[in-house]
Amino acid sequence: MRLLLIADTHVPKRAKDMPPAVWDEVARVDVVIHAGDWVEPSLLDDLEGRARRLIGCWGNNDGEELRRRLPERADETLEGVRFTVVHETGQSAGRDARMARLYPDTDVLVFGHSHIPWDATADTGLRLLNPGSPTDRRRQPFCTYMTATVADGSLDDVVLHRV
């Protein structure tokens, strides 16, 4: 199963739309995971219409309609791997251990908010992934997103892509 991980799209405030490379991935993957800060419901509508499967949560910049349509925390098991999707995880210092304590029954935590890519594994085995942002690099050198595969209880081929 192929996955696309995105967050902090901020459409249409930071970009009018997602980059073509991201839409190309949407067409190729089995599951799109979005870790919040959509900003406008129109992007959610577009992804619901184009993605085979969509898992997402709302972020701090998402208004009432997005909060009504999306959970603050999404939990899904894909091919035997337990995923949790949230927007915020707090400061980076101590994040891995703090998230491992908060999400003891999760294998992979996908998060956003910082626009800073993150790929780490806590001592407990929890994998933490932040795909950055495909539309707003902030102080990062590039806009980014992630792809991965999951099969037989294993997350593999996690790749950070530059836009």
Adjacency order of strands in the biggest sheet: 3-2-1-9-10
How helical, in percent, are the residues? Answer: 10-25%
**Strand-residue proportion:** 25-35%
Mean pLDDT: 96
CATH topology: Purple Acid Phosphatase, chain A, domain 2
Distance between the termini: 23 Å
Q: Helix segment count?
A: 4
Enzyme class: hydrolase
Cofactor: a divalent metal cation
Pfam families: Metallophos_2
InterPro entries: Calcineurin-like_PHP_lpxH, Metallo-depent_PP-like, Phosphodiesterase_MJ0936/Vps29
Structure overview:
The two termini are 23 Å apart. The chain is built from 4 helices and 10 strands, in the order E-H-E-H-E-H-E-E-H-E-E-E-E-E. It has one domain (2-162): Purple Acid Phosphatase, chain A, domain 2 (4-Layer Sandwich), CATH 3.60.21.10. The chain has helices spanning 20-28, 41-50, 64-69, 95-102; strands spanning 2-6, 31-34, 54-56, 74-78, 81-85, 108-110, 118-121, 127-130, 144-151, 154-162. The chain has a 5-stranded mixed sheet with strand order 3-2-1-9-10, with helices on one face. It has a 5-stranded mixed sheet with strand order 4-5-6-8-7, with no helix packed on it. The model has no long low-confidence stretch (mean pLDDT 96). Helix 1 (20-28) links the parallel strand 1 and strand 2 (31-34).
